[in-house]
């Protein structure tokens, strides 16, 4: 018998697949305080949650019997995935079940903003018949800027077109072809912010998207812009939003999600321009039933030895395969992470080649790991080595794998190449006997760098003095160079310099390096 804990309110109809299994003992105990959950979790084999319950490391470490955590919804930012993976607990979610509801809620927010519906309703409840104060704007022919064109962003785009809005979107994986097929425009983040009358955010909350909409971003928007966040609190900087509204830059904001939830006592809620709902995007009978069915199937199946449909973290691999390829796992992922740092355009193809010792080894898990490293900068914890290829395909990136026995000097070599419209980038790495992983080639140049820490790649002209100038500039910013590698195509031609430095370089510091006329390109990559 397996013990299942349902810790957040789930649809009763949706959990029927679990109730139908004859070896499940289901306990529904919602609203537990962290210390209560910590005390109880030890006897459970499965934990089902929505976004309220925070499944922290402390809780996971008390969960000695836990095999699976299921999130009945999309965002897994309330679950410590690293702790779950470290403790061998698989995490699953239900990524598709609430897409429609979240898109509909977003449209309701846009329409409520444009016609002041919540404000007018409150006024009428106070027995005021105020028709002048609540004159709105039509959305027809207005431009909707969508930041993040994944499942929900795309559904919002289709609905907004139905309202005859002009739609422009930014997503790192959005190509012109895809935008054309959807009948929408596409641009950089700045272009979208500058063009839009209404902006709606649909990205996950990641290191990269945290406070993506800050005071700088508000500065780029049209005066009188209206903004919606039905994605995750923290993507919009709430203090910056408050000032942008008070200054008159932003005419209205609709928020379903907040940096700290519950969000009941905040100065934003006192502004008449702000309308808000308490994280209701997925709160429909339909969505709740679907997500509960999805996770119930995965939990019942997994506990009975079947593969899961929507894994979020690492699954286990057969021991024989794992033993041979485990040493290469970190290297393959780091090569992917390095490459996305040098991918300045939309990726269309990723080619992964294996040579030498890797010729007759099962390398598919390494390819998935390399693709995971490449995608995770934009897709975050949602991507893992099981779903990496599927997600790449969904983003329109084709993956190719090939093997060769010869290696020209290395006993083993993994090369990852990205093909974009604007050209190609590549990186190769090897495991040096006893010395660990090394990056040994970047875009065909020979280098020797450990794939770890803060790496700066500089493409420059091969003329005397560049190395000295670069050293002085970095010294001026008090940045210590730990290692330096240089290689060139030919004397006086193109050259590459790879530095490892002691700390992260911010955008401003990078810009000062780019000012040197001998420098073509500088990228900073933190591995
Ligand atoms: N309010 C709610 O109740 C509710 C309901 C469902 C989902 N959500 C949230 O909505 C968000 C979107 O969910 P989804 O199912 O569409 O996810 P998704 O993974 O399908 O789409 C997210 C998209 O964001 C893009 N992205 C990543 N980084 C970006 C960046 N820096 N700039 C622009 N785009 C970027 C990704 O490429 C991807 O296409 C998530 O945060 C999810 O948790 C909220
Ligand atoms: O990420 C999600 O799926 C949504 O934010 C829904 O969260 P909820 O299940 O707590 O409503």
Question: Which ligands accompany this protein?
Answer: nicotinamide-adenine-dinucleotide, 3-phosphoglyceric acid
Output the CATH class name of the largest domain. Answer: Alpha Beta
Q: Main sheet? A: 7 strands, parallel
Radius of gyration: 26 Å
CATH topology of the largest domain: 60s Ribosomal Protein L30, Chain: A
What structural class do helix, strand and pairing data support?
alpha/beta
Mean pLDDT: 93
What is the helix fraction of residues, given as a range? 25-40%
Task: Write out the CATH superfamily name of the largest domain.
Answer: D-3-phosphoglycerate dehydrogenase, domain 3
Unreliable stretches: none
């Amino acid at each position: 018998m397996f013990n299942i804990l349902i810790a957040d309110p789930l649809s009763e109809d949706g959990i029927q697949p679990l109730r139908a299994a004859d070896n499940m003992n289901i306990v529904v105990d919602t609203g537990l305080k962290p210390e209560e959950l910590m005390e109880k979790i030890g006897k459970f084999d499965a934990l089902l949650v929505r976004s309220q319950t925070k499944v922290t490391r402390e809780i996971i470490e008390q969960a000695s019997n836990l095999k699976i955590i299921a999130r009945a919804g999309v965002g897994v930012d309330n679950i410590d995935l690293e702790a779950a993976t470290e403790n061998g607990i698989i995490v699953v979610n239900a990524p598709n079940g609430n897409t429609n509801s979240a898109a509909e809620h977003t449209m309701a927010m846009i329409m409520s903003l444009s016609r002041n519906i919540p404000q007018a309703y409150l006024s009428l409840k106070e027995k005021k018949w105020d028709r002048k104060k609540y004159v709105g704007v039509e959305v027809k022919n207005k431009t909707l800027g969508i930041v993040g064109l994944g499942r929900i962003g795309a559904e919002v785009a289709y609905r907004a077109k139905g309202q005859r809005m002009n739609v422009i979107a930014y997503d790192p994986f959005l190509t012109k072809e895809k935008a054309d097929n959807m009948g929408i425009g596409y641009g950089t983040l700045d272009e979208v912010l500058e063009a839009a009358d209404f902006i709606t955010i649909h990205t996950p909350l990641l290191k990269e998207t945290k406070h993506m909409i800050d005071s700088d971003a508000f500065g780029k928007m049209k005066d009188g812009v209206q903004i919606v966040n039905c994605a995750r609190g923290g993507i919009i900087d709430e203090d910056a939003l408050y000032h942008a509204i008070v200054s008159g830059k932003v005419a209205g904001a609709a928020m379903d999600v907040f940096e700290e939830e519950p969000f009941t006592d905040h100065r934003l809620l006192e502004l008449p321009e702000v309308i808000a709902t308490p994280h209701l995007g997925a709160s429909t009978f339909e969505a709740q039933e679907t997500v509960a069915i999805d996770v119930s199937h995965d939990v019942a199946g997994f506990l009975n030895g079947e593969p899961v449909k929507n894994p979020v973290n690492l699954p286990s691999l057969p021991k024989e395969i794992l033993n041979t390829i485990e040493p290469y796992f970190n290297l393959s992922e780091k090569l992917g992470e390095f490459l996305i740092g040098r991918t300045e355009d939309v990726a269309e193809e990723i080619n992964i080649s294996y040579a030498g010792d890797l010729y007759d080894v099962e390398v598919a898990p390494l390819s998935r790991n390399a693709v995971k490293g490449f995608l995770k900068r934009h897709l975050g914890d949602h991507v893992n080595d099981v779903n990496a290829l599927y997600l790449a395909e969904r983003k329109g990136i084709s993956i190719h794998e090939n093997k060769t026995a010869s290696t020209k000097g290395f006993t083993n070599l993994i090369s990852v190449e990205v093909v974009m419209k604007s050209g190609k980038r590549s990186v190769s790495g090897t495991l040096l006997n006893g010395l660990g992983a090394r990056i040994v080639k970047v875009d065909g140049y020979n280098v020797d760098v450990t794939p770890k820490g803060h790496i700066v790649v500089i493409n420059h002209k091969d003329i005397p003095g560049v190395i000295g100038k670069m050293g002085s500039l970095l010294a001026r910013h008090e940045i210590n160079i730990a290692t330096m590698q240089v290689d060139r195509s030919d004397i006086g031609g193109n050259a590459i310099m790879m530095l490892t430095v002691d700390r992260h370089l911010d955008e401003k510091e990078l810009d000062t390096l780019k000012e040197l006329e001998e420098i073509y390109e500088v990228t900073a990559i933190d591995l």
